[in-house]
Every structure is written in structure tokens, then in C-alpha cells.
Amino acid sequence: TVQNYKMELLGIDIGGSGIKAAIVDVEKGELISERHRIPTPRPAVPEAIVEVIAEMVAHFDWKGAVGVCFPTVVVDGKALSKSNMDAAWLNFQVDQYFQERCDLPFYVVNDADAAAMAEMKFGAGREKNGVVIVITVGTGLGSGVFHDGKLLPNIELGHVFGVDGKPIEHYAADSARKREGLKFKEWAKRFDFFLHHVIRVFRPDTFIIGGGTSKKMDKFQQHLTIDVPIYAAEKLNNAGIIGAAMFANEAHH
Ligand code: BGC
Fold it and tell me: Is beta strand 92-93 parallel, antiparallel or unpaired with respect to 106-110?
């Protein structure tokens, strides 16, 4: 088959628990292959992660540009925080490292920014103007902040300090719900506290909730007391993969 590099790219989503990849049609914002998932190696050091990346490239027999979304602050392909990954990633040039191992062009972007870009273009954020904040709820609390469709990159709302002086994601992410065995109603109170905090600072017009938890909105939405409209992401768990491929497409062409 003839591969059209302009429309099809490999997207890889590196998360705290799993690494997921698929081939993406970036014009339609859809996966055009099955999704392949490999558990995130622990410790999540560069030497271990890069082998999973190479395995993904081999699995899809991929020969073009690759977009990767990564759960840290990323500027020009370099990780500027470690967040829930290994400390070895701090100030690490991620794109170059993957590129040297696989001999393909790599483009790396923050995971929440990638998922949020996919939602804005192809999902719940379509045609939503003003200030839109996408929150991804998973191992951490990721955020993508937009004004009239334009992203302000690397905003880390999950790193605001909570009442205990620790990043609020330790208290209000989905990992806290699981770790502490909270009922959705109990967890929702925490998430609600976080959203109120975000409203005090940003006054968004719209919230979009992404990450794995977006599938469970019916279990907690009724417990939220905010007055800003809130929507579930439509691309669910695929948003990161799609956004990573979109980012690579824009950077590559
Ligand atoms: C990281 C963010 C990331 C979020 C979701 C946080 O711990 O600091 O960069 O977007 O988790 O994975």
C-alpha cells in the first residue's frame, strides 16, 4: 500500500500505567489501526521507555514521523519536570533520544495538551470559543487551556498546592480515588474543590473532562457544584494518541 505521510502518522501516548499507540488519520482525527498497549515499565527510566517505543514502531512496521505525548512539561522536545515519571527525565531531550534509537523523526508534546488539542478539533471542544479548560483525570490531573481555540501550552493546574501543601493531583486525581478506596461521591467532592479553585483563577466558559474518568461522568457529575458548563471528552482514551499525531503532523510539515 502507498502510505500518505501527510494524513497518517503514528501516535504514542505515554502514561503512568500504560503506553498506547495507533496509526492516526490526522485529517479526520480518527484511529485507522487497532490500538496497541504495553504496560509502562517500572521504574519508568529512559532506557526502559525507549525500548517500548521501539517495540511500538516495530509492531506497526512504521516508517514515518511519530508523535509522542508525555506526562511532563515539554518544551522543544525536552522534559522540564518529572511529575509521575522517573527523575532521570528531568531536563532530558526526549525527542532526540527516541529519534536516535528508532531512526525516525519524533515530536514530543505534553500529554494533556495533546489530548486537549484533539478534543478541541475533533471532540467536545469543536467550535467552542472563549476560555476552554480541558482537565484530564488519571494518574495525575493534566490540563489544556485554550482561548478562542488557541492553546496556552504546559499549564499545570494539577500542580497547584492543595490544603495539605502537596500538589492537588495527589488529592483529587483518579489515582487518589483508587489508592484511598473512595466512593465516587467522596472523590467528586475533592474534584469539585479543585474545579472551584480553577474557576477562581481563570473563570473559564467551558470545562471538558478527559482521561479514563471521562467515561464515568454519570457517576460524579451530579455531585459537582460549579456553575461552569462541563462536558465529557468524546475521544476518551484515544485523545492523547490523536493529539500526539496532530502535533507531529504540524511540526513535520
Ligand atoms: C503532569 C502533567 C500531566 C498530567 C497528566 C501531571 O502529573 O505534571 O504534565 O499532563 O500529570 O498525565
Answer: unpaired
Amino acid 84: pLDDT: 85
Beta pairing class for 36-39 and 92-93: unpaired
Give the angle subtended at the CA of 123 by the CAs of 119 and 126, to the nearest 5°: 90
CA separation for the pair 112, 134 (Å, rounded): 8
Residue type, 71: P
223 alpha carbon to ligand 1 midpoint, in Å? Answer: 24
Q: Does ligand 1 have an atom closer than 6 angstroms to the CB of 142?
A: yes
- Nearest-atom number in ligand 1 for the CA of 15 is 12
73 three-class SS: coil
Residue 240, burial from CB neighbour count under 10 angstroms (0-12, 13-18, 19+): buried
Residues with Cβ < 8 Å from 214, sequence gap 6 or more?
A: 137, 232, 233, 236
Instruction: Give the predicted TM-score (pTM) of the model.
Output: 0.95
The tens digit of pLDDT for each residue in 132-175 reads 999 999 989 999 999 999 999 999 999 999 989 999 999 999 99
Ligand 1, pocket-test mutation among 72, 73, 137, 159, most atoms within 8 A of CB: 72
Report percent pLDDT > 90 for the chain.
91
Q: So what's the pLDDT on residue 252?
A: 87
CB of 83 closer than 6 angstroms to any ligand 1 atom: yes
How many whole angstroms separate alpha carbon 30 and alpha carbon 158? 28
The arithmetic mean of pLDDT across residues 102-113, rounded, is: 98
